[in-house]
Automatic annotation (TrEMBL):
<protein>
    <recommendedName>
        <fullName>ATP-dependent RNA helicase DeaD</fullName>
        <ecNumber>3.6.4.13</ecNumber>
    </recommendedName>
</protein>
<keyword id="KW-0378">Hydrolase</keyword>
<dbReference type="GO" id="GO:0000027">
    <property type="term" value="P:ribosomal large subunit assembly"/>
</dbReference>
<feature type="domain" description="Helicase C-terminal">
    <location>
        <begin position="233"/>
        <end position="380"/>
    </location>
</feature>
<feature type="compositionally biased region" description="Basic and acidic residues">
    <location>
        <begin position="459"/>
        <end position="470"/>
    </location>
</feature>
<dbReference type="InterPro" id="IPR014014">
    <property type="entry name" value="RNA_helicase_DEAD_Q_motif"/>
</dbReference>
<dbReference type="GO" id="GO:0005840">
    <property type="term" value="C:ribosome"/>
</dbReference>
<feature type="region of interest" description="Disordered">
    <location>
        <begin position="440"/>
        <end position="470"/>
    </location>
</feature>
<dbReference type="InterPro" id="IPR000629">
    <property type="entry name" value="RNA-helicase_DEAD-box_CS"/>
</dbReference>
<dbReference type="GO" id="GO:0070417">
    <property type="term" value="P:cellular response to cold"/>
</dbReference>
<dbReference type="InterPro" id="IPR044742">
    <property type="entry name" value="DEAD/DEAH_RhlB"/>
</dbReference>
<comment type="similarity">
    <text>Belongs to the DEAD box helicase family. DeaD/CsdA subfamily.</text>
</comment>
<dbReference type="InterPro" id="IPR027417">
    <property type="entry name" value="P-loop_NTPase"/>
</dbReference>
<dbReference type="InterPro" id="IPR005580">
    <property type="entry name" value="DbpA/CsdA_RNA-bd_dom"/>
</dbReference>
<dbReference type="Pfam" id="PF00270">
    <property type="entry name" value="DEAD"/>
</dbReference>
<dbReference type="InterPro" id="IPR034415">
    <property type="entry name" value="CsdA_RRM"/>
</dbReference>
<dbReference type="InterPro" id="IPR050547">
    <property type="entry name" value="DEAD_box_RNA_helicases"/>
</dbReference>
Amino acid sequence: MTEETLPTFAELELAPAIARVIDEIGYESPSPIQARSIPPLLAGRDLLGQAQTGTGKTAAFALPLLSRIDPALKSPQILVLTPTRELALQVAEAMQTYARHLKDFHVLPVYGGQNMGQQLRMLARGVQAVVGTPGRIQDHLRRGTLRLDRLIGVVVDEADEMLKMGFIDEVEQILEHTPAHKQVALFSATMPKEVMQVARRQLKDPVEIRIKAKTATVDTIAQRFWQVKGLHKLDALTRILEAEEIEGMIVFVRTKTATVELAEKLEARGFSSAPLNGDMTQALREKTVERLKSGSLDIVVATDVAARGLDVKRISHVINYDIPYDTEAYIHRIGRTGRAGREGKAILFVAPREMRLLSAIEQATRQPITSMSLPTRKDITDRRIGLFKEQIATAMESEDLEFFEEFIDSYQSEYDVGLRRIAATLAYLVQKDRPLQPEGGLAEEVVAPEQPSRSRPARPREAQDADKQRYRIEVGRAHKVEPGNIVGAITNEANLSSRDIGQIKIFDSFSLVDLPRDLPADILRHLQGVWVCGQRLQLSEDRGAGQALQGKPPKRRPYGKGGDQRPFKPGPKKPPYSRRGPKTDK
């Protein structure tokens, strides 16, 4: 199946309520993994899919499974297992969106750190889909609060990440508690032998799909990303338009509806912009492209399909207003700039929970994407002043100003006002509708320190970061712990990004890890009881590198109420349900 022969969403025979949402959202065509996965999943077949992050896997399994459920049945019919809480939330939100025309449909994300009482209430009320991390799913199975006897489909998402984080045994244990007749879909970016063994044991005559990831170098394009925080994306885009040297720009969004809405908002802010999408007639699309080429239009807000093959040399910038779920789409998007040997600029807006997609894009382009800060109030003021000076210089050189010079002489003589005062007043009148100094509504962005790109390692640190505190955890080399196990546990349980975790040193019976100094006490208490490789972390402040290197436990103060000095007593290491104890995402 080639890109040219991919079916449309209308041809995939999704349930009418699901197809209606796809049409409302404005998705134009399925990605390769969606086009090849949806038909067999609709038919009830098991599926083994190899595809990278950023290929549209969530819709590939969510759309067909949602098409097969019975909304009137208030029991879990779909179970999705994910390695992290961030992915669980992302999948749950997508499923809720796709199912918005299914009456009384509910999806419940379950993960460590979330209030258990809230999860119990939702399960008692009735949900049709559960998306969760293995540890918390196991918790509910032990309690008897999650029944899986009415499941029609189970999805194991990012199975290779499950393996890296030490969850693969728990995934199989959960699958053993599901009905024999259920449908199973397993997705993985790579297929290590352990994942293939799980697939052979758990999948029945699966359809196998492999989407080969394309990589491309884009040497002529400078790539940057802004992590969405504090400001609305429209305000961020406005700042960039104000401060950057822009000749022509394409702003990419995911849906046809968004092209029209964003173009209208940019027009309202004084920018020359127009939409470009598949609902427009061919004649109107061609007219819009011609306006962009001629310079009578500066900004086109487009979808992927509408911008295919677009070749306009004056495009200096591509803005990914919505991050693409398909890495190939990103490569096509940024390829609209940097044409004919010219240097282009690509800027990507990334929400915190989309950082994993950013890493996938870096792998696809084989280039790091550097973090950027938004232009400040001063940057915008300087840019406006510079343009105003250019206008003055151009008019001074090209226009006949004799009449106006006589007018100024007359005004100065009549009112006895200095030339400087007259010039300042005239400048004010010219710019008052678009002030050189941004108005007070322009809030400053809170800028985080520059972070190294995730595609290349940060240089080793000789000293501990000033904003980090070193902690000791009671799991080490003897327990076969790896740095990934520690990172996976802490990011899941403390709701942190992997970039928040500093240096990790693993010794025989314990490890040292650098964490942010401002972690709340309740998070620290919670981390003490988290399990990694069959051991409780028993997190405590490290009180001395010398003691640590000798393997002697330093004096430490538990984060109990009142900060008493009594050591914590580890609980039972192997609860009855799990062979190796509860895992780290509980």
